[in-house]
Write a structure and sequence with these properties.
The protein is α/β, with parallel strands linked by helices. The chain folds into 2 domains: 225 residues, Alpha-Beta Complex (Spore Coat Polysaccharide Biosynthesis Protein SpsA, Chain A), CATH 3.90.550; 71 residues. It has 10 helices and 7 strands. The chain has a 7-stranded mixed β-sheet with strand order 3-2-1-4-6-5-7, with helices on both faces.
Length: 328
């Protein structure tokens, strides 16, 4: 089995050496380990340091963002025969020495994706508000994806070749939420591996404050939910609008029955508008569900294209661990 460890970086010359030095050189079940640094338009010595440590470097002439860096690293890894791809960060947040534990479920064929659970409630520099928002965000993503994940925002992850063939990113912000919702929709096996993070080295460059992170994460979750679970989203909206719209008419009927013939035109207009909204939500749900069918067919075609371009990939339950005999 061939493992690629990819590290998206933007001006990480201070911490990258520690990250590269802590990546294990031998892992049970893995025959080859290669390291790829995606230099996202750094203005410091990030690329030079990566090369000095023996890593392959993919450089962007200008900053393209985390999602594009992730995509470029995946494309390179698959083109070079990767069976498993691990993503970690260049700020030394994650414990690279745990990569062996992270990939073990994939090597054994027990999972398609493994996510490092940072156990955010134990992180000292997280405020109580941020800890609660992390828990709430993970709950929302778990509900949207039909999974149970304690740390949906963690970027310390391992993906099998089969999973990467089936996942297709369209977001420009961060891949973490979208890939989980896609994986849940496509019934990929996901496991969480408890880890402890290293000491904080810098502030996040993805967002200026926690509120911007919440807003952009919410946008990513809503967009992915509409793409992959449209009927559930629009049916819920239709039910809510429908109940709100029916209430004024029920109230009007009760008042008429007891002899109150006052002017209720405003509430009836409001009820009519909300019932129209319920009908529009149903229509959008039908249209989105039809579009989902087309998207599924397109993704199946893309999966076949990837197999032709990069070679076949077997699901986790059909992969034999390195060195084991194939099933008769």
């Amino acid at each position: 089995m061939k493992l690629f460890v990819q590290i998206p970086c933007l001006d990480e010359e201070a911490t990258l050496p520690a990250v590269l030095d802590s990546i294990p050189t031998r892992i049970d079940g893995i025959d080859e380990i290669r390291v790829v640094v995606i230099d996202d338009g750094s203005s410091d010595a990030t690329g030079r340091i990566a090369r000095e440590h023996g890593a392959q470097v993919i450089r962007h002439a200008r900053t393209m963002g985390l999602a594009q860096s992730f995509r470029d690293g995946i494309d390179y890894a698959l083109a070079n025969g990767a069976d498993i791809v691990v993503n970690t960060d260049g700020d030394n947040q994650y414990p690279q020495e745990r990569i062996g534990d992270l990939v073990r479920p994939l090597v054994l064929g027990e999972a398609d994706i493994a996510i490092g659970d940072r156990q955010t409630h134990t992180i000292a520099h997280f405020s109580p508000f941020k800890k609660s928002m992390q828990r709430f965000g993970s709950w929302v993503v778990s509900r949207a994806s039909g999974t149970r994940l304690p740390d949906a925002a963690s970027g310390f992850r391992a993906y099998s070749r089969h999973a990467l063939y089936r996942l297709n990113l369209v977001t420009k912000f961060s891949y973490t939420m979208e890939t989980i919702i896609q994986a849940g929709d496509k019934r990929l096996a996901i496991v969480s591996i408890p880890i402890h993070t290293n000491a904080k080295t810098r502030e996040s460059r993805l967002f200026r404050n926690v509120f911007e992170h919440m807003l952009r994460s919410a946008q990513a979750i809503i967009r992915a939910s509409i793409m992959y679970r449209p009927w559930g989203v629009f049916a819920t909206l239709a039910v809510v609008f429908g109940l709100v719209g029916v209430a004024p008419f029920v109230r009007f009927g009760i008042l008429r029955a007891v002899g109150n013939d006052g002017n209720h035109i405003q509430s009836l207009i409001f009820g009519t508008i909300t019932l129209v909204g319920a009908g529009l939500a149903l229509a959008l749900g039908v249209l989105s569900d039809l579009m989902k069918t087309n998207r599924i067919l397109t993704e199946q075609l893309l999966e076949r294209v990837k197999e032709q371009q990069y070679g076949p990939a077997l699901p986790a339950h059909e992969r034999a661990p390195s060195g084991s005999a194939p099933s008769p």
